[in-house]
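User: Reviewer 2 asked us to show a designed sequence for the structure in our supplementary figure. I'm pasting the structure tokens here. Could you produce the per-position amino acids so we can include them in the response letter?
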């Protein structure tokens, strides 16, 4: 039995037809974890969909109404890059409910993983890049509303910048005497700095970190608290050095009650929508680093899976399953 819960539902499946996003990955990850004996059926818990009130903690009423009544404009649907349907709305509401449940579980068990979610390109007033609603932001706002947490830190390791996350939490940023100024010089560069660039900005009650490929979607990258713009072809060692640095820099500036780790599988070298050069083992070390830091500082961590478009879907399933294996190794002791 795992020392934490996996949040999953068969209804996480996104009804988007033939698409570069492998919507069947969630079920395949679950099946793999059970078939390999990593998890038992009793390790999985089933989420309830978020309520409209939960979604409205992050999203604009006009946008939520368009989603629930099926009145998005053709342009808005195109920007989302997934075909609108009422069933798809249900799947996204469930993903948000799954992230709320995973965040709550993390507070009691130190860690929890939702075998889904991580829709970091959703904005308050529109969806884009395969993301309709921002499940992680909804979870953070719901737990804050319930007085379960005061602050949170997002650690986004998907190959694409977390533009929705940055935009949603930018509004809460206020100048604070406790935080250094927003100049990039306050962010320390790693020793023997590998190629890449790190930028810093003020944080409010949610500190956002994004490590991503610079030359990739989204074109416009609204500033996160820390953005690490990685060059094309960045490999394991440089990536891990940047991640280590971004985490220590972030945790020097900010004390989160919860870490929301967006564990995208798309920094993988064989990803169809990514241009970094991480190996499956490098991605495992990435997970290990995040979990070790969280564990050492006793900060609960909730995980969502976000993107993953490997040529071979089995690789994507392996990368996500490894996140569970690594969490098991680190949190068992
Ligand atoms: Zn991605």
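Assistant: Here is a per-position design you can include in the supplement:
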């Amino acid at each position: 039995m795992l020392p934490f819960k996996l949040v999953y539902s068969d209804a996480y499946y996104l009804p988007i037809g033939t698409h570069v996003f492998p919507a069947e990955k969630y079920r395949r990850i679950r099946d793999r974890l059970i078939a390999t004996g990593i998890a038992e059926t009793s390790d999985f818990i089933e989420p309830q969909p978020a309520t409209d009130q939960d979604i409205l903690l992050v999203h604009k009423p006009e946008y939520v109404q368009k989603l629930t009544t099926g009145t998005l404009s053709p342009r808005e649907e195109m920007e989302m890059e997934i075909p609108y349907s009422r069933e798809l709305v249900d799947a996204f509401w469930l993903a948000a409910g799954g992230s709320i449940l995973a965040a709550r579980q993390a507070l009691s068990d130190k860690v929890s993983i939702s075998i889904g979610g991580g829709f970091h390109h959703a904005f308050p007033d529109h969806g884009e890049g395969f993301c309709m609603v921002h499940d992680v932001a909804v979870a953070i706002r719901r737990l804050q509303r319930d007085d379960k947490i005061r602050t949170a830190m997002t650690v986004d390791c998907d190959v694409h910048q977390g533009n929705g996350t940055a935009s949603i939490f930018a509004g809460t940023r206020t100048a604070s005497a406790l935080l250094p100024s927003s100049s990039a010089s306050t962010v320390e560069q790693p020793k023997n700095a590998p190629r890449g660039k790190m930028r810093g900005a003020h944080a409010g009650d949610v500190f956002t970190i994004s490590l991503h490929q610079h030359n990739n979607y989204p074109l416009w990258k609204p500033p996160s608290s820390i953005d690490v713009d990685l060059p094309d072809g960045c490999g394991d060692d440089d990536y891990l050095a940047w991640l280590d640095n971004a985490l220590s820099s972030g945790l020097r500036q900010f004390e989160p009650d919860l870490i929301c780790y967006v564990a995208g599988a798309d920094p993988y070298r064989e990803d169809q929508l990514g241009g970094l050069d991480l190996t499956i083992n490098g991605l495992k070390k990435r997970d290990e680093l995040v979990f070790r830091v969280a564990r050492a500082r006793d900060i609960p961590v909730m995980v969502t899976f976000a993107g993953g478009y490997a040529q071979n879907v089995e690789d994507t399933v392996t990368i996500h399953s490894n996140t569970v294996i690594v969490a098991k190794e680190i949190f068992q002791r």
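For the response letter, you might also mention the following. The CA atoms of residues 63 and 126 lie 6 Å apart. The two ends are 13 Å apart (CA to CA).
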